[in-house]
Design a protein that fits this description.
alpha+beta, 2-enoyl-CoA Hydratase, Chain A, domain 1, 6-stranded mixed beta sheet, 5-stranded antiparallel beta sheet, globular, single chain
C-alpha cells in the first residue's frame, strides 16, 4: 500500500551562527532581540546587579598605567575602557560571548545581512584553537579543500595562538580577489599545510532539493537564515505533490542560525505541541519552545545527515527529531554548540554578544561541547571529496530504504 494512501490526512495538509565571509549564524543569535542600552543615571545604576568587588583596585591599576607606562600618551582613555570590557568578557571563558568596539560591531551586523567579502567558512574556537566549523558550499574555502575540523594555525604567517574568534576573522577577511594564506592542520596529516584562498564576495546559499531514486526526497539545508521558512514552504509544495516515500534532510556543514527559524522548520516534521528545544538559564529556570507548524511531514519517514560542521540550530533540529521520532542520524558527531546568544547594541555604536542560556534537547540532554553522536557513523575522506563520492549520503539512502520498509 502506498504510504500517502495510508497517511492522506497528513499528505495533503499544507499551510501557508561567525562566518569569515557569509552570515554569522554559528552564534545561535536571537532573531530581532537586539536592544539599545540607555545610559543609566548614577542613582539608578546603583540598583543594578553590580559585582560585589572593590573596584578601587581597577582605578588604581588604571592610574598606574597612566602614570608609569612608558608610552602612555599613545593610549587613549577609550582604549583603556574597551580593553577593560573585553577583559571582563574574556573572564567568562566563553568563546561565544564578547565585546565589539564600534568598528567591529559594524562588521558583526554586516555578517547578519548575509553578503560581503571573505572565504566562505564558519570558524570557531575549540580547546583554545581556531578551527573551521564548516565551509559553505561553492565558496572559495570549499573549492580550496577546506574541511570541517581543520585547525587554523597561522594566517599570512601570523600565529592564531591565543586569539579569540573575532580577532581571527579580522585577520582572514580582506578585499575580494586578494589571497589569504592559511597554515592548517587536519587529523591524519603528518604536518601542517599552507592553503592559499582567494577572497570573494560571499552570498550564502540556503536550500536546495531533488528527488532521488525510489521517490526519496533529498533536502539540503545550508543555514537557518531569516528567509528559510519561506524558502522551505516554496520547496515543500512541489515536493509533497510528488508524495515522497521518505525524506533525507541534509544538515551537514550547516553552522546554524536563528533559533526561531529552527523551531519553525521543526513544525513541519513534529506534531503541534512537541517540545523542540529547552533553554536553561543561570537561574535554573527553563523556557521551552514548541512545534507550532502544519506537521505536514510529521509522518513521512525521515533520515538526517550530520557532521562536525553541523552546529547550533542544526543540532537543535536534529536532536528534536531524534528525541520525538527516533529519527536516525547518519554521518559524524556534530560540533557541540549548545548555547544561545543575545546581541545588545550599546552606546557609542559598540555591541555585546552574551551567552544567556544553554540548549537542551526535548529529553533534557545537553548539546554544549558534547554534540550529537550519529546512529550510523560514516567518515568522509579527502579521497571521497576528490572523487566526488558521498558515502554518507549513500548510507542515508540505505537506512531510508529500511525505514520505508518498516512503514509498509
Amino acid at each position: 500500500m502506498n504510504f500517502w494512501n495510508k497517511k492522506t490526512a497528513f499528505g495533503y495538509t499544507l499551510a501557508a551562527i561567525i562566518l569569515v565571509g557569509g552570515v554569522s549564524f554559528f552564534a545561535g543569535i536571537y532573531h530581532g532581540t537586539s536592544k539599545n542600552i540607555e545610559a543609566l543615571p548614577v542613582a539608578k545604576a546603583q540598583t543594578q546587579n553590580l559585582p560585589n568587588a572593590d573596584f578601587s583596585l581597577f582605578w588604581d591599576a588604571i592610574a598606574v598605567i597612566k602614570e608609569k607606562y612608558f608610552d602612555a600618551n599613545t593610549v587613549t582613555d577609550e582604549q583603556l575602557l574597551y580593553g577593560a570590557i573585553r577583559g571582563a568578557f574574556e573572564s567568562l571563558d566563553d568563546p561565544y560571548s564578547g565585546f565589539f568596539e564600534p568598528s567591529d560591531a559594524k562588521k558583526f551586523h554586516e555578517d547578519l545581512s548575509g553578503s560581503f567579502g571573505g572565504i566562505g567558512a564558519e570558524i570557531g574556537l575549540r580547546d583554545g584553537q581556531i578551527v573551521i566549523v564548516a565551509p559553505l558550499k561553492n565558496t572559495p574555502a570549499e573549492k580550496a579543500g577546506v574541511m570541517a575540523g581543520d585547525k587554523i594555525l597561522e594566517v599570512n604567517g601570523s600565529s592564531t595562538a591565543g586569539l579569540i574568534v573575532e580577532e581571527a576573522v579580522k585577520m582572514i577577511r580582506g578585499e575580494p580577489e586578494t589571497v589569504v594564506t592559511l597554515l592548517m592542520m587536519r587529523e591524519g596529516w603528518s604536518e601542517a599545510r599552507e592553503i592559499p584562498i582567494e577572497r570573494a564576495i560571499i552570498t550564502v546559499p540556503t536550500l536546495e532539493w531533488e528527488m532521488k531514486k525510489g521517490n526519496i526526497a533529498y533536502v539540503k539545508l545550508n543555514n537557518f537564515n531569516a528567509n528559510v521558512p519561506e524558502l522551505f514552504y516554496q520547496m515543500a509544495l512541489p515536493m509533497l505533490m510528488q508524495k515522497p516515500n521518505g525524506i533525507i534532510l541534509d544538515l551537514r556543514n550547516n553552522p546554524g542560525g536563528f533559533l526561531d527559524v529552527s523551531v519553525r522548520i521543526a513544525g513541519w516534521f513534529l506534531d503541534r505541541g512537541d517540545i523542540v528545544v529547552r533553554e536553561r538559564f543561570n537561574t535554573e529556570e527553563e523556557d521551552r519552545f514548541y512545534a507550532n507548524g502544519n506537521a505536514s511531514l510529521a509522518y513521512v519517514p525521515l533520515v538526517v545527515l550530520v557532521n562536525e560542521g553541523s552546529a547550533s540550530a542544526s543540532e537543535i533540529l536534529a536532536g528534536a527529531l531524534r528525541d520525538h521520532r527516533g529519527v536516525m542520524l547518519v554521518g559524524e558527531k556534530t560540533f557541540g554548540k549548545g548555547t544561545v546568544q543575545e546581541v545588545k547594541d550599546m552606546r557609542n555604536g559598540s555591541s555585546v554578544k552574551i551567552s544567556i542560556a544553554e540548549w537542551l534537547t526535548p529529553n533534557g540532554n545537553s548539546i554544549n561541547k558534547k554534540g550529537l553522536e550519529p546512529d550510523y557513523e560514516v567518515k568522509m575522506t579527502e579521497e571521497d571529496i576528490k572523487e566526488k563520492r558521498d558515502p554518507q549520503l549513500e548510507k542515508a539512502i540505505e537506512v531510508m530504504k529500511e525505514e520505508i520498509n518498516l512503514h509498509f
